[in-house]
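Structure (tokenized):
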């Protein structure tokens, strides 16, 4: 069987980084790791071609070549997934779909022949066996969680690495916490399942041997879900792996209790980590209690963020407005928190209730569910629930908040707060030709033609004189700011 592995297009969103990628001539932020992993699970002798439509076109020739299409995607990619499915159907291919989009809403896709839902480690082998017997079913699903120590390494050779700004790798799945709005535990469970340090090293070797020298994102739901294994096995192995090489910068996602563990932060920085995404959600203690965000409660969140930044890890953060306990004063409180924290990349969204979450169940019971699904884009200002403060007040407050924190004046002020606090990590993103050109491109686009030109040169000169080694990071932050402002303008115009 000739297999086409297909990854749909992202819309222009906060996380697409579309407007920032242009500066470094990259076509997408990250590769489709799920599909690369599926590729490695399929029989070796089946010829495979991966088309990520974020980086290249799906041509008629591709469709004519293949017998079967394997499609992946997240909810946010549903429109493009529909178009791709229609084209595959027209071309007469057998269509097999899996991944988060289809696990959440497979009943919306009539033209798919076989759904391989949940974790493919468990649901793909029965499909392959049934295909061999000539009697494949329509749906393969499971309520079990697999042992990811048996997950094969992604087939990096299926993609052209140079089109991506960063690579990704997955060490663990699942999260020990139980936040009411989060679907991670519904999708991946409470128990943190981990790959072995040896598997991770083999995966890193795979991409390194393929020529990759840029940053790597550990796409774990909570990287510090098992601190013991990290300290005793994975981090020592990563520290060892970096030796004798041009070191690779890592980043990941973790819970805020990372701030309580100085030795862990030190080891992470030593292993090459320079940034971490944290679900801060809200400075409102009642809202944290309402959504059961235990790990954020009863602590000085601002101090925690500072401690992490001072250890050498940039904090990027997720924030939510629209909890039942929020009053209209929340917008100003969030603004003050975000500005003081120096969290430059602050993803703020309205509270949503994705299917499968406890919040979804509660909203349905309370008759407050507006639609059955959420847009899938956390930062588009939409929600599928009726908020206590009223939709209009929430939307208006949200738009003002976003315009405030991403206005050049406040964005650059926040960047400066961060740069003052941040301990420069020892591993630096390698400066390739495109990154050098990005310096020129940003000085022209932001420094000459941009609305932010005054703030741009102010921060550049400040960095040059006060923290010269941070200059590449300052340029990156300026470019991100440009992307975020474009997204805000776009969403507010809609
Ligand atoms: C990395 C990541 C991203 C990257 C995307 C990188 C990329 N190109 O894929 C970035 C940072 C850009 C991102 C952004 C967002 N993400 Co995201 N992201 C993740 C994360 C953390 C890891 C995904 C991953 O690579 N996993 C590793 C691979 C190996 O696993 P996998 O893709 O799930 O694949 C397995 C199965 O799903 C299945 N499978 C996958 N594809 C296919 C295809 C076929 C044919 C088959 C048979 C099986 C199959 O088999 C694989 C092996 O088990 C997940 C959480 C998670 N733990 O998965 C969230 C997740 C996928 N993201 C999610 C969301 C909502 C978003 C955002 C909308 C908002 C946000 N959370 O911030 C944005 C939107 C993106 C955009 N551009 O607008 C949701 C998706 C929910 C849904 N039902 O669609 C998840 C599940 C997190 C969550 N809490 O709900 N994300």
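Design, position by position:
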């Amino acid at each position: 069987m000739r297999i086409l592995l297909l990854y749909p297009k992202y819309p222009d969103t906060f996380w697409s980084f579309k407007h920032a990628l242009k500066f470094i001539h990259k076509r997408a932020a990250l590769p489709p790791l799920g599909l690369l992993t599926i590729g490695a699970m399929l029989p070796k002798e089946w010829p495979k071609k991966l088309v990520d439509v974020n980086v290249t076109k799906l041509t008629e020739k591709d469709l004519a070549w293949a017998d079967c299409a394997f499609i992946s995607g997240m909810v946010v990619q549903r429109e493009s997934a529909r178009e791709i499915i229609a084209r595959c159907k027209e071309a007469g291919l057998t269509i097999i779909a899996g991944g988060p989009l289809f696990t959440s809403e497979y009943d919306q896709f009539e033209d798919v022949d076989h759904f391989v839902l949940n974790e493919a480690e468990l649901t793909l082998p029965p499909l392959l066996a049934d295909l061999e017997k000539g009697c494949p079913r329509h749906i393969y699903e499971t309520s079990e969680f697999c042992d990811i120590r048996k997950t094969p390494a992604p087939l990096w050779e299926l993609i052209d690495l140079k089109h991506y700004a960063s690579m990704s790798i997955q060490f663990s799945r699942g999260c020990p916490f139980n936040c009411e709005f989060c679907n991670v535990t519904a999708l991946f469970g409470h128990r943190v399942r981990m790959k072995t340090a040896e598997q991770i090293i083999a995966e890193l070797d795979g991409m390194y041997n393929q020529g990759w020298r840029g940053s790597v994102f550990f796409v774990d739901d909570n990287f510090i879900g098992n601190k013991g294994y990290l300290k005793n096995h994975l981090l020592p192995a990563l520290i060892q792996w970096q030796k004798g090489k041009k070191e690779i910068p890592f980043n990941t996602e973790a819970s805020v209790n990372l701030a309580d563990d100085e030795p862990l932060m030190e080891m992470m920085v030593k292993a090459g980590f320079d940034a971490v995404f944290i679900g801060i959600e809200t400075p409102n203690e009642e809202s944290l209690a309402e959504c059961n965000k235990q790990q954020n409660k009863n602590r000085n969140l601002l101090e925690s963020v500072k401690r992490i930044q001072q250890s050498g890890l940039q904090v990027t953060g997720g924030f939510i407005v629209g909890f039942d306990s929020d009053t209209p004063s929340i917008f100003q409180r969030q603004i003050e928190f975000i500005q003081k924290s120096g969290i430059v990349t602050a993803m703020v969204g309205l509270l949503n209730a994705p299917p499968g979450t406890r919040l979804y169940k509660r909203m349905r019971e309370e008759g407050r569910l507006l639609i059955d699904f959420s847009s899938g884009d956390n930062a588009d200002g939409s929600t599928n629930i009726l908020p206590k403060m009223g939709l209009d007040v929430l939307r208006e407050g949200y738009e003002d908040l976003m315009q405030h924190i991403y206005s050049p004046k406040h964005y650059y002020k926040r960047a400066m707060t961060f740069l003052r606090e941040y301990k420069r990590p020892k591993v630096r993103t390698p400066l390739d030709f495109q990154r050098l050109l990005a310096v020129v491109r940003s000085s022209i686009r932001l420094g000459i033609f941009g609305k932010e030109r005054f703030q741009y040169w102010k921060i550049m000169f400040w960095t040059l004189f006060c923290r010269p080694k941070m200059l590449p990071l300052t340029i990156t932050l300026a470019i991100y700011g440009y992307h975020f402002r474009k997204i805000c303008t776009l969403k507010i115009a809609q």
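Reviewer-requested clarification: The radius of gyration is 22 Å. Residues 471-493 form the longest helix (23 residues).
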